[in-house]
Structures are given as C-alpha cells and as structure tokens.
Amino acid sequence: MNQITDKVLPVCDLCAKPIIEKGGLDINPAVVMDTYIAWHKWEREIEGQMYQTSDMPDLPEHHWRTAHWECTGDDDTYWIEWDRINSPEKAMGWTKHLSGKVWFSHTDWFDLMSRLGYSVYA
Ligand SMILES: [Zn+2]
Predict the structure, then answer these.
(1) What's the gap in Å between 63 CA and the centre of ligand 1?
(2) Cα of 70 to ligand 1 centre, how many Å?
(3) Pairing between β-strand 23-27 and β-strand 65-68 as defined by DSSP bridges
(4) For 67-119, where are the alpha helices, taking DSSP H only?
(5) Does the residue 122 lie in any domain?
(6) 56, 42 in Cβ contact below 8 A?
(7) Torsion region of 117: left, alpha or beta (phi above 0 gives left; psi -120 to 50 gives alpha)
(8) Residues 6 or more apart whose Cβ sits within 8 Å of residue 118
(9) Containing domain of residue 42, as a range?
(10) Dist. CA 66 → ligand 1 center (Å)
(11) pLDDT digits (tens, 9 = 90+) for 51-109
C-alpha cells in the first residue's frame, strides 16, 4: 500500500506528470550548504551583539523537488526514493534523520510534508 498516492498523487516538478513509480524527493545539498555557510558567517559576525529580525540576512529557502528519477538527470542531488518515504512513519524517520544535517533548516521540508499529505496537526 502506498499511502502517499492514496492521499495525494505526487506530480513531478520537472515534467508535471504523475509519479507512479521510479520517483522520489530530491534537493541539491551543495547549494543549500552555501546558504548555511552564509548564515553561519553572519552568526559569527553578530556573536554577543543584540540584533533585530530586520538585521538578519535575506537568504533563500531551498525547495525539495518531487521528481521522476529519469527527469532529474542530476547525480549531485540528495535523493529519497518513494518506497523509502511512502508512509507517515517513514516520513517521520526521514525528518529525524535530516534534522541532524546543518543545512536542514534552510529547506522547505515541512512544506513538502504538507504537500504530500503528511499534515502534522491533522
Ligand atoms: Zn518527470
């Protein structure tokens, strides 16, 4: 039973066709890491100082894609196969795993979970 497709049939962000098999989630960790490094640099610069929200650097939030494996054509992405994240329990496991990555908070992971029908407060 594929619980994601029972709720919301994911669509490939690249070709806009439904992902039924050989698909997954991906993101380019090198690009996200650049944002993390910029954030960390700013944190070091303001260490011990008072600051306002408006002082914070305007850094991008990086988007996880839903995609067919064939459509990505990018070997440098962090890839999660559907069959490894096709239930709320598996998604929770991935959330725990990914939250240990320094770049995790610079991605839209929780928006993605909502798009996939994994609402935290359902
Ligand atoms: Zn596609």
Answers:
(1) 16
(2) 7
(3) antiparallel
(4) 69-72, 88-98, 109-115
(5) no
(6) yes
(7) left
(8) 88, 91
(9) 3-115
(10) 8
(11) 898 988 999 999 999 999 899 886 788 999 988 998 889 999 999 999 999 999 999 99
CA–CA dist 51, 3 (Å, integer): 44
| Centre of ligand 1 from the C-alpha of residue 13, in Å | 7
Instruction: Look at residue 121 and tell me if it is in a domain.
Output: no
Q: What is the Å distance from ligand 1's center to 24 Cα?
A: 10
DSSP-assigned beta bridge partners for residue 80: 25
Determine the distance separating the centroid of ligand 1 and the alpha carbon of 73, expressed in angstroms: 10
Query: What one-character DSSP code corresponds to residue 49?
Result: S
- Structural domain includes residue 93: yes
**What global pTM score does this model have?**
0.80
The helix/strand/coil state of 101 is coil
Residue 84 lies in a domain: yes
Nearest to 113 by CA among 77, 85, 84: 85
Calculate how far, in angstroms, residue 64's C-alpha sits from the geometric centre of ligand 1.
14
